[in-house]
Amino acid sequence: MQITLSPMTLRLFVKPPLIPLLLLATFVDGFWSLGNLRTLAESISTDGLIVAGMTIVMIAGGFDLSVGAVMAMGGVAAVVLLPYGIVPAALGALVAGGISGFLSGTLVTRLRINPFIATLAMMVMVRGATLAYTDTRPVVGLDDTFLALGGGDPLPYAFLIMIVVMLAAHVLLYHRPWGRHAYAVGADERAAQMTGLKVNRLKIECYMLSGALAAFAGMLLAARLGTGSPIVGEMTPLTAAAAALIGGASLRGGEGSIMGALCGLLFVGCLINVMNLLGVPSYYQRMTIGGLLFALVVVEGLLQRARPR
Predict the structure, then answer these.
(1) Distance CA 103, CA 126 (A)
(2) Side-chain half-sphere CA neighbours of 109 within 13 A
(3) Residue 258 burial by CB count (10 A; 0-12/13-18/19+): exposed, middle or buried?
(4) Rounded-to-integer distance, Cα 241 and Cα 243, Å
């Protein structure tokens, strides 16, 4: 007899085992305290925006390694433009991220460069440009209105923004033709092109959306930290990719969901939070997340080989 589990059951108990992890976290001193839960909400809020963009790119059959560097650039751009007002600062960060995404998408679609190589090159260029502009120093000069954006009680404003963005992304993917086209392109690019879909334009739009969300996340992080740092986001691509893959996305494209990505983000965020509470050194945390991502890629490869052709 074959047992079929609902998608929500799979997301909570199997892929990822979110509920079992939360039950184990009950035995970690301080995990369920209000202060720690607020810290957890803050830590996943900026990553959540990036995971949403990463998931959309992966659904369309791509990948984006540049999100960490773009996040740093977005934070610096917002702080530099802040004297002109918070709205120009936000628009400047979004435009900067969108341009980097456009360039990545163009490299992938027009020049047919592998997404990993194209976005790796973009990551290096954006990071280098940001470090050169800031002379490797944090950018300061924030006003109270901008700093308030990084606060919020009892829930951080950034967390509420993340929920709104993820709901909007869910509607875009599941209730709009654009989302259905993204799934079609990721599942079979050639078939999608034969049906008349503008594949290259849609993939570029996915990368632009990912870049804009990463830059906006950088602005929110700058508001929380009180400075625009050019060195943040080193581990962001790894964390975002792990969350998206755990949530059901695939490196082959055509699979994944925003709600699944949210569960994957909660799993990774809770795992890192528990390790912090237990005093696990940061290098062991990186090894854990890296090992988790490695295992996910290996398992996906084995499952792909086992499927009938």
Answers:
(1) 11
(2) 25
(3) buried
(4) 5
Name the band, by pLDDT with cuts 50, 70 and 90, for residue 86: very high
Q: What is the pLDDT of residue 5?
A: 47
Residue 18 reports pLDDT greater than 90: no
Task: Tell me which fold the domain 33-297 belongs to.
Answer: ABC transporter involved in vitamin B12 uptake, BtuC (1.10.3470)
- DSSP structural state of residue 31: T
**Quick one: tokens of 29?**
């001193």
**Distance set, CA 269 to CA 104, 142, 180, 240 (Å):** 28, 28, 29, 10
Among 46-55, 82-91, 151-160, whose mean pLDDT is lowest?
A: 151-160
Q: What's the alpha-carbon Rg for the chain, to the nearest Å?
A: 19
One-letter amino acid for residue 13 of the chain: F
Nearest to 252 by CA among 198, 294, 297, 210: 297
The residue among 267, 224, 217 whose CA lies nearest residue 242 is 267
Q: How many angstroms separate the CA atoms of 235 and 104, rounded?
A: 19
Residue 148 is predicted with a pLDDT of 87
119-146 pLDDT, tens digit each: 999 999 999 999 999 999 999 877 788 8
Query: What are the residue ranges spanned by the domains of the chain?
Result: 33-297
